[in-house]
Amino acid sequence: MQPVVKFKNLSKRFGQTVALNDVTLEIPPGVVCAVLGANGAGKSTAIRILLGLDKPDAGFAEALGMDSKTHALEIRGRVGYVADQPPLYEWMTVAEIGWFAAGFYPTGYKAEYDKLTTKFDLDGKQKIANLSKGMRAKVALSLAMAHRPELLILDEPTSGLDPLVRREFLESMIDVSAEGRSVLLSSHQVSEVERVADIVAILLNGKLVCVERLDDLKRDTTEVAISMPDETTPPPAMPGINLAHVSFGHDHVWMVRDLNEAQLRESCRSASLPEPQIRKPNLEDILLAILREYRRDPLQKTAQVKTDTAVENHG
Ligand SMILES: Nc1ncnc2c1ncn2[C@@H]1O[C@H](COP(=O)(O)OP(=O)(O)OP(=O)(O)O)[C@@H](O)[C@H]1O
What we know:
This protein has ten helices and 14 strands. By secondary structure, it is α/β, with parallel strands linked by helices.
């Protein structure tokens, strides 16, 4: 199955700043893929390159099978894109901007736009200039979705929006993927991402350190806490892949991939250590552990999280 998004060895610098460092990623059709990462990790740069709004220094990006360097206009015509602060014609009304945009798309656009704006409780007669931030975001999403794109790209679409509007956005994304179309989403709202994402990609300082189906990442990752008897007793070795380890005095916490729980319990028992506290972390716990570990030691192999870049759609 042809991926809807393909990044191949994508690199981009702005002067001394490395925005993207050899990023390779493939997104199959019919999924919501969330790109996560700290501020400045390279998320918007990757999206801008995909849309042909910026040029990579090396590698290439493809959307719907088209190269972003040579087919930027076609890509922008076929995908739906909502930027963080979408530019809109302030003097138009909600209905007029839909009518204006319909001129660039096949028949049916305006009817679909009207359906979406009605669903989002927007008043067609209201001037764009008088809309709240949330209402503007709903107009931008309606404009981006009205031609029923195979790929919807959302760059921080819900920042600064109230919980109700954020929920409406999320439901729209679920609707899109349920119809076999795809969503590429950049967001800092990790708990919301967790509700909708099929695949998560984590960028750290321009480097892709995790691409995985969210269900697999959560199933295979475990948080372990052990309160050692004192600060001098060494903690046990973790039977699994250690993604992150922090200690506060004699309390230790690990984020472990593929933990062999039975082996850990046995080694604690045989060394007369307290029982380990084991729990399943949520996405935010996993992301924070990876980010903290990276900040502590940027050269370590955080890429111990899976980075199989061609993630299958099991859906
Ligand atoms: N036009 C530009 N000129 C100079 N530096 C830039 C430019 N665009 C991005 N950068 C730098 O590239 C890096 C990646 O920026 P980018 O906007 O892609 O990050 P991001 O992950 O989207 O961040 P955020 O979550 O804060 O939106 C940052 O260090 C940023 O300062």
